[in-house]
Design brief:
Oligomer: heterodimer
Structural class of chain A: alpha/beta
Radius of gyration of chain A: 21 Å
Number of strands of chain A: 13
Order of helices and strands of chain B: EHEHEHEHEEEEEEEEHEHEHEEH
Mean pLDDT of chain A: 96
CATH class of the largest domain in chain B: Alpha Beta
Strand content of chain B: 25-35%
Order of helices and strands of chain A: EEEHEHEHEHEEEEHEHEEH
Number of domains of chain B: 2
Low-confidence stretches of chain A: none
Cofactor (chain A): AMP
Largest interface: A-B, 77 and 87 residues
Function (chain A): The electron transfer flavoprotein serves as a specific electron acceptor for other dehydrogenases. It transfers the electrons to the main respiratory chain via ETF-ubiquinone oxidoreductase (ETF dehydrogenase).
CATH architecture of the largest domain in chain B: 3-Layer(aba) Sandwich
Largest sheet of chain A: 9 strands, mixed
Radius of gyration of chain B: 20 Å
GO molecular function (chain A): electron transfer activity
Protein name (chain A): Electron transfer flavoprotein subunit beta
Distance between the termini of chain A: 58 Å
Strand order of the largest sheet of chain B: 5-9-4-1-2-3-10
InterPro entries (chain A): ET-Flavoprotein_bsu_CS (IPR000049), ETF_a/b_N (IPR014730), ETF_b (IPR012255), ETF_beta_N (IPR033948), Rossmann-like_a/b/a_fold (IPR014729)
CATH architecture of chain A: 3-Layer(aba) Sandwich
């Protein structure tokens, strides 16, 4: 079966985020960019399913700027067979991305779509669920375990109270949580091989999709800084401060 | 304006986070209706009817909604949403699961995890793991929003007397089914609503050592959390994780024990009123956000603290 893995190019998770002085957004000029960490987990899961013989083809897809080709190459170095870039310089938002992905799903007809539960830039946590709704697929969000068998997929989900397991008919959408797997690193030979794998470029117009944002960002501010307090010398002093100064116990 | 609030519950009782979502609804303005979808959830609907400021409660009691499957609940809410300008759900794993489905079915954007209401179209929300706060304006006629519970002071659970209306709408997509769940059983307060939270990190060394935190927590009536490092290391289950991808907490007192203070963790607790850090590494970043820091071996400091309270 075929699996589609949508990925996103985002600021590298190690980079300290700085708000622009004019409050128009976050400063992304000259900062290191990388594949969103949850997307790496999605690619890894697809590759593991292929290694188990469950999946026959992995197609990576990204909706974003031309430079997102780098992340698609990374996905192919990790094991994706080919990739599709829907190139746009628009500030793409989850609903638009989900519509573009639906168009890709209609063309590619994957039996499984695996994607990250959220991107670490917008922290929206919407795209997988929206794609599932638009395509009428069931969804297994925040997955910590995925088992495909007998034309169904069983997904164990990380929920607030613990773990929940659901069974979904295929095709289905799965979004990854942190503990689903630990992504591998791409080896040098695989990085070289990935350069020769096919990468198709499309536009939103090709897909007949409108990516115009529905939500505008009015301003972006740095959060209120928390001031460091004091270092107490002993447990006694801590108890005294909590009782008499902070009055919280 | 009219706001539909989706109630968070376990079919037996209302989750307190719903009171914070109603508070966000009040800040938006207009009539507030609470939708309770579940199975055998009549008691929850009665409870919702007593919430201060709620004018109506809709109760969709059906097998299809027993386990809050997103396919069914998402459809239901999209249909009910026809009569409202705003649809609000808590930014819990339930709300995050179905709300984007509802938004997509309505062909509107979702505004995720708002932390403040500026006006009926404009909201604040954290982005980049809380390293930036965006003010965003939605141009959609209908708004689907998830609400960060800890950012809004809960309204009173009593004082209202809304009418409860049964809603006979069965949405069953038939594409998903509930297999089972492993829920943490604990007598301690739930993390997101606890007045005091004590969390352990990698410094705890193993799961058994969390006992000293449980003992202290029981003395203080506190909830117990953990850093991602402690969860990833298998010391404790995932539902205890506090942080960007775990639970967001804002108690009166947060005690971080053996936690270095990675950005990921700080994003989940830095809105706590008072933060105490106990760590033997005086360079640990957690001390930069702590009101009271104690540089000490946690295995000596925590039992001593326990003994002196």
């Amino acid at each position: 079966m075929k699996v589609l893995v949508p990925i996103k190019r985002v600021i590298d998770y190690n980079v300290k985020v700085r708000v622009k002085a004019d409050n128009s957004g976050v400063d992304l000029a000259n900062v290191k960019m990388a594949m969103n960490p949850f997307c790496e987990i999605a690619v890894e899961e697809a590759v593991r399913l292929k290694e188990k013989g469950v999946v026959s083809e992995i197609v990576a897809v990204s909706i974003g700027p031309k430079t997102a080709q780098e992340q698609l190459r990374t996905a192919m170095a990790l094991g994706a067979d080919r990739s599709i870039l829907v190139e746009t310089d628009e500030d793409v938002q989850p609903l638009g991305i989900a519509k573009a992905l639906k168009a890709i799903v209609d063309e590619e007809k994957p039996e499984l779509v695996i994607l990250g539960k959220q991107a670490i830039d917008g922290d929206n946590n919407q795209t997988g669920q929206m794609l599932a709704a638009l395509t009428g697929m069931p969804q297994g969000t925040f997955a910590s375990e995925v088992n495909v068998a007998d034309g169904k997929v069983k997904v164990t989900r990380e929920i607030d109270g613990g773990l929940q397991t659901v069974e979904l008919s295929l095709p289905a959408v799965v979004t990854t949580d942190l503990r689903l797997n630990e992504p591998r690193y791409a080896s040098l030979p695989n990085i070289m091989k990935a350069k020769k794998k096919p990468l198709d470029t499309k536009t939103a117009a090709d897909l007949g999709v409108d990516l115009t944002p529905r939500v505008t960002t009015v301003s972006v501010e740095a959060p209120a800084e928390r001031q460091a307090g004091i270092i107490v010398g002993s447990v006694d002093e801590l108890v005294e401060k909590l009782k008499n100064e902070a009055k919280v116990i | 304006m009219s706001v539909l609030v989706y109630a968070e519950h376990d079919n037996a009782a209302l989750n307190k986070v719903t009171l914070s979502v109603v508070a966000a609804a009040k800040a938006i303005g207009g009539d507030i209706t609470v939708l309770v979808a579940g199975k055998g959830c009549g008691a929850v609907a009665e409870e919702a009817a007593k919430i201060e400021g709620v004018s109506k409660v809709l109760c969709a009691d059906n097998d299809a909604y027993e386990h809050q499957l997103a396919e069914n609940v998402g459809d239901l809410v999209a249909e009910v949403a026809a009569d409202y300008t705003h649809v609000l759900a808590a930014a819990t794993t339930t709300g995050k699961n179905f709300a984007p489905r509802t938004a997509a079915l309505l062909d509107v954007a979702q505004v995720s995890e708002i932390s403040d209401v500026i006006d009926a179209d404009t909201f604040k929300r954290p982005i980049y793991a809380g390293n930036a706060i965006a003010t965003v304006k939605s141009s959609d006629a209908k708004k689907v929003i998830t609400v960060r519970g800890t950012s809004f002071d809960a309204v009173a659970a009593e004082g209202g007397s809304a009418a409860v209306e049964a809603l006979d709408v069965a949405k069953n997509a038939g594409t998903s089914s509930f297999v089972g769940e492993e829920l943490a059983k604990s007598d301690r307060p739930e993390l997101t609503s606890a007045e005091i939270v004590i969390s352990g990190g990698r410094g705890m060394g193993n799961g058994e050592n969390f006992e000293i935190l449980y003992k202290l927590a029981d003395k203080l009536g506190a909830g117990v959390g953990a850093s991602r490092a402690a969860v990833d290391a298998g010391f404790v289950p995932n539902d205890m994780q506090v942080g960007q991808t775990g639970k967001i907490v804002a108690p009166n007192l947060y005690v971080a024990v053996g936690i270095s203070g990675a950005i990921q963790h700080l994003a989940g607790m830095k809105d706590s009123k008072v933060i105490v850090a106990i760590n033997k590494d005086e360079e640990a970043p957690i001390f930069q956000v702590a009101d009271y820091g104690l540089v000490a071996d946690l295995f000596e400091a925590v039992p001593e603290l326990d003994g002196k309270l």
